[in-house]
Fold these 2 entries.
Entry 1:
Amino acid sequence: MTRVLVIDDEGSILRALRINLTARKYEVVTASDGASGLGAMARARPDVLILDLGLPDMDGVDVIKGIRGWTSTPIIVLSAAGQESTKVAALDAGADDYVTKPFGMDELLARLRAAVRRASPGPDEPVVATEDFTVDLAAKRVARDGTDVRLTPTEWGLLEVLVRNRGRLVTQRQLLQEVWGEQYQTEGNYLRVYVAHLRRKLEPDPSRPRYLLTEPGMGYRFSCG
Amino acid sequence: MTRVLVIDDEGSILRALRINLTARKYEVVTASDGASGLGAMARARPDVLILDLGLPDMDGVDVIKGIRGWTSTPIIVLSAAGQESTKVAALDAGADDYVTKPFGMDELLARLRAAVRRASPGPDEPVVATEDFTVDLAAKRVARDGTDVRLTPTEWGLLEVLVRNRGRLVTQRQLLQEVWGEQYQTEGNYLRVYVAHLRRKLEPDPSRPRYLLTEPGMGYRFSCG
DNA sequence: ACCAGTGTTAACGTGGCGTCAAGATCACGG
DNA sequence: CCGTGATCTTGACGCCACGTTAACACTGGT
C-alpha cells in the first residue's frame, strides 16, 4: 500500500485529501506544520509527500531543502496561485511537481500516480550486506553468521537511519531527531550508549569499529566495508 | 549537455523554446507532428521530451503511449487549458508533468530541470575532484589515494566553505564568520593554523600549495587544479 | 633592514567519546 | 494485582584528541 504524507495547515484541504486518498486505498499520514512535518517524514517514511507551501511556522522551500538533505522521496507542492518565482524556487529546491490551488482532485491524483510510478523502479536495495553481517531494511532483520541478531526497537531505529544513509555522515542532531524525536536533539548520551550496543552485536572487534564509524564532533557513518 | 526534443506544431512556441533553451545551453531538437516526433525520439535519444498535445496528425495521448512502450525518458506535456480529464489521461499514459498554455518560461524551465534531475541516475553527486583528492560535500567525506582522510569538524567546516566557493576568493572575514561565528572576525590566527592543517592533509607538497591558495591581504581560494 | 602579513610548531585545558552500571519504565504472564 | 524480564534512561568517570593560544620563523615589499 502506498503511503502518502500530507503537510498542510488548512483543515478543509487536509480533510478532502484524506477522504479521497483513503478511498483510493492510500495510507494517509498528516502533519499541519513544517517542524512536525519533517519529523513525520522521518518517522512515517512515506512513498510520496504532498506539501503545502503556506505553512505557519516555516518557509516551504526550507522544508523541501530539509527533506532533500537525506531522501529523494517525491514531493508534490501545493500552493495558492502566486508568483512564478515561487514555483521556480520550489522546483529547484527539489520538488517534483507543483500544483496551484484551487486544483482538481482528479488532476492531483493523476500527478500523484505519476510521481509514485516514476519513483517505483526502486533505487532501493532493501538488503545491505557486509563481510560480517547483512541488514534487510524491508524485513527489519539483521543476520550475522547465518543466524538472526536480536535488536531492540531503538537499536534497530538507529541502525536503520545509518544504513539508509550508508556512506554518508549522519549528524548527531539528525540521528537523535529521527530516532528519538524533535525534542531530544541535545541528548548526545543516547547515541553513545546505543552505538556501543550495535557495535557489540555487529562489529567483529567492537573496540575498533569497522562499519559503525565515529566522526568526532560531527556524527556517525555507516561504512559498507 | 542535456538534449531536449520539442514536439509542437505552433511555430511561435517552437521558436520561443528554441531560443530560451539554447541560451541555457540545452541542445534542442524539434519536430512538428506526432509521426516525425516519434521518429526523432528514436533517432535523437533526447534526455527529456516537451510534447504539445494538440498535434495535427495524432492524438497526444497515443504519442505518449508510443514512447512509453520502449523508453522512460521524462515527458513534459504542453497543452491549451482544457478539461481536467485530458490532464489525467496524459499523466496516466506516462507523462511526467503537465503544463497548460499560456505558461511562464521560467516555470517551464524549472519543471524541465526537475524532470532532468529526477531522471539522472545519481541526483547529482556534489563531488569535487582534483588530481590528488576528492571532496564529497553530501557525505562529508574526503578521499586521497583511495582512502579516506580524517578531518576534524573545524577543518571540515573550513574546507567546505572554500570548496563551495571553489575558484572564487573567500575573504578572511567571511571564512571566520561562517566557520567560527560572528564574533571571531578578527582572529586571523585560526585561519593560518587550520589552512596549514588542511594543506598537510591534502596538498601533495604542503609548502607549495596547489589547491588551497593564499591571496595575501585578502583571504584564501580553492583552486580545482 | 624593517615591518606586516603569513606559515609552523608545540603546550595546555576542555569537550566529547566510550564504557559501565544502577535506577526507571514498560510489556507480559501468572 | 503483582512479579519478572527486557528495554530505556541517566549519571559518573577516564581518556584521548580537538580547539585554542602563544611564540617564533619566514617571506615579500618599501
Entry 2:
Amino acid sequence: MARAASTLELRQAAKREAILRAALELFAERSFDGTPMPLVAERARVGTGTLYRYFASKEALGNAVYREAKAAMRRALVESLPPGLAPREHFGRLWRGLARFTVGEPATVRFLEMQHHEDYLDAESRAAGGELMESVADFLRGAQAAGAVRPGPPEELIALALGAFVGLVKEAANGRFALDEAAVARAEEAVWALLARPPEDRP
Amino acid sequence: MARAASTLELRQAAKREAILRAALELFAERSFDGTPMPLVAERARVGTGTLYRYFASKEALGNAVYREAKAAMRRALVESLPPGLAPREHFGRLWRGLARFTVGEPATVRFLEMQHHEDYLDAESRAAGGELMESVADFLRGAQAAGAVRPGPPEELIALALGAFVGLVKEAANGRFALDEAAVARAEEAVWALLARPPEDRP
Amino acid sequence: MARAASTLELRQAAKREAILRAALELFAERSFDGTPMPLVAERARVGTGTLYRYFASKEALGNAVYREAKAAMRRALVESLPPGLAPREHFGRLWRGLARFTVGEPATVRFLEMQHHEDYLDAESRAAGGELMESVADFLRGAQAAGAVRPGPPEELIALALGAFVGLVKEAANGRFALDEAAVARAEEAVWALLARPPEDRP
Amino acid sequence: MARAASTLELRQAAKREAILRAALELFAERSFDGTPMPLVAERARVGTGTLYRYFASKEALGNAVYREAKAAMRRALVESLPPGLAPREHFGRLWRGLARFTVGEPATVRFLEMQHHEDYLDAESRAAGGELMESVADFLRGAQAAGAVRPGPPEELIALALGAFVGLVKEAANGRFALDEAAVARAEEAVWALLARPPEDRP
DNA sequence: GATGAATGAGCGTTCATTCAT
DNA sequence: AATGAATGAACGCTCATTCAT
C-alpha cells in the first residue's frame, strides 16, 4: 500500500506543478528558445536555482512540459469517450472534446501546435502521445471495416483531420474569424465529410 | 533599354540569393531564434559582416526570407491555374500545385508553417500573401454560389483545408508515412469532400 | 531604527564600488569609448555578466561614474569651506581643496576634465554639479559687491579660473613640471590676480 | 631646384587635404574613437580604400591631423606677432590671435583641446607644437627679466593662461555665455593680470 | 591610382547554469 | 531544500583594414 504523502512531498509536488505551468505558458507565448529560465522562475514564484532542483536543464523542462501537455490532451479526449459509440458520434465526441480542451487550455494547445519541438525533445517525449494516436487509429480502422470511414492509411486521415483542427485554431487566433460554437459545429461537419466514406462508394 | 547587369551586380545578386537560401534552410531547420547569424554566413559561404551589407539586421533578413517564401508559394499556385476551370478541377490544381511545391521546396513550406513569425515580421511582411488568400477566398465564394462548395465563411474552409495539407506534410516529415503521389491523391479526394457541398443538400 | 547591513549587502556594496572605481580609472586612462566592458570587469575582478547586474548598460555605468565623480569633487570643495571667510581666503580654500583633491584622486579629476561626456550623459547627470557651480558663482557675486573681485559675468570668471587649474594639472601630467606645493601656491597667487579687482580701479 | 608639381601631384595633394579636413571635423565632432573610417571617406568624397593610400592607418591619420592642427595654430599666432612689441601688447596679440583662430577654425581648436590624443599619438606628434611653446616661454622669460611678468617657471604660467583660454572656450561652447568681442576683451584683461607682475612687487 | 565589397576580430549584452549561503 | 548572485560562452552587430577589379 502506498505510503501517505508527507507535507513536504506535497509542497514539492505543488512547486513542480507551478514550474511546469509557468513554463508551458511562457513557451506558448514566446517559444522555447525565446523564454529565459529566470522568467520561468519568476512566473512560478520560485528562485532561479530551484528550477534546477526539479529539472536537470532547460531541455529537460521542455521535455516534461511537452509530455504533460500530451497527457493532458489525451485525458481530455479519452474522458469524452464512452465505449460503443457509432463512428459519427465517436468522431463528434473527439472533435468537441478537442474544441473544449482548446478553449479551456489554450496555452497547451498552442504549445503543442508549435514547431521545433524536435530541437530539444528526447526519444521518450517523441513517443509520448503515440498511444492516443494509436487508439484513434484503432477507432478509424474499426470504422473503415464497418464502411463508415473512407479507406486508406488511418495515419493519413488523422494527419488531415488533426491538421484541419489546428489550422482552424491557428487562423482563429490570428483574428481571421471567431472560434464560436457555430464555427466548431460547421467544421465538425466538414471534417467528418473528409473522413466519411463517400456516399457514391456505398453499396 | 535596360543596361546589361555588370559582373559585379551579378555576383552581388547571387550572393544575396545565397544568403536568403541559407537563412531559409536554417530558419526552417532550427527556427529563427535558434539560428545564429554566423551560421547563416557560414552556410552562405560569406563572412559574418557581409550579411549586414545585404540585410540591415537579422530581423530584416527574416522579413526578406518570409516575403520571398510567400511570393514563391504564390507563384507556384498561380502558375498551376488556367482560368475558367470547374471548381473541382480548380481545387485539384491548387492541391497538386501545393504538393509539387512542397516536394520541390520543402524548406520553404516548412518555414512558412512555423509559428512565432509574429515576433519579427513587420507590417508589410504580415500583409504579404494576403492576396493569395483573397484569391482563394474568391474562388470559394464563386464555387459556393455555383452550389459546388458547402456554405460558410470561406476563411474557415481555407483554414481547414490548408490545415489539413499542413498536417499531412508535417506527419509525413515525422516519418509516419510517405508523401507519395498516391497519398497526395487520396488526400485530395478527402479534402475535396471537406470542401464540397454535401450530396444530401443538393436538390 | 535602520536594520544592520547583512554580509551580502556589504559584499554587494563593495562590488559596486569596485566596478565604479575600475570604470573611473579606465575611462580616465582610455576614455569612455575606448574602454571595453570586459576590461572594466577584469579590473574590478568580476565576471563580465556581473557588470550588468549592477548597471543596466555601459551608458548607465558611465552616468554613475560621472555623478560619483561630481559628488566627490563637490564634497572635497565644500568641506574645505567654513562660512564667513574673506574672499581671498575663500578662494584660497577652494583652490587648495581642488589641488588636494587632484593629488588624492587624479583619476576623478582627469575623468571630469574629459570631453565627449555629452555622448552618453543623461539629463540628470548633466545637471549634476550645477549646484557647485552655482554656489561658486554666488561667492563671486558677493565678492564683486564687496569690491574684492573684478566685475563681469561670474560664469566667465569661473571658466577662466577653473580652466587655469585644469591647464596646470594637464601640463603637469604631461611631465612639463611638477605639481608640488610651491607650484600650487604660485598658481593660487596668479589666479587670484586674475579674479581680484585690479588695484588701479580701487578708490 | 624644385621640380614643378604635376597635375597629378596637385590632385593628390588636394585629396590629401580633403581627407585631413574631413577627419579633423569628424574627430572634433565625435572624437577619434567615435569616428569610423568609412565616414571620413564619405565626408572627404573619396573611397574608403583611398584613405589607406594616403595614410597607413587610422592612427597615422590621427597623427597627421594632430600635427596639421598644431601647425595651423602656430601659424595663426606667429603671424599676429611683429617683433619688438611691449609685453602687454605682445600678450594681447597672442590672446586675440587665439580668439580669432578659435572663431575661424573652431574644429581645430576643439580637436586640440580634446583629451586622449595620447592613445594614438606617436613621439613626433607629441613633440609637435613644442617650438610654439618654446617661443612663448622665451617671450615670458624676457618679460620677466624686464619686470613685466610675475616670476616663476614660464611653463606654469603658459599652462595657466592657455588653460584659462581653453576653459573660456569650452564653457562658451556649452552655452553658458556668448564668446563675443567684449567677453574676449574682459578675459584678456583678467588673464594679463594673472601673468603680470603684481604692482605691490614693483619697486 | 582609386575603389568599395568583403572580412573577422572585437564590441555591448544576454542567459543557461552553478554554488556559496 | 531553496535561493539568487555570479559567471562566461555565445549572441547580434560594427568597423579597421584588405584586395580584386
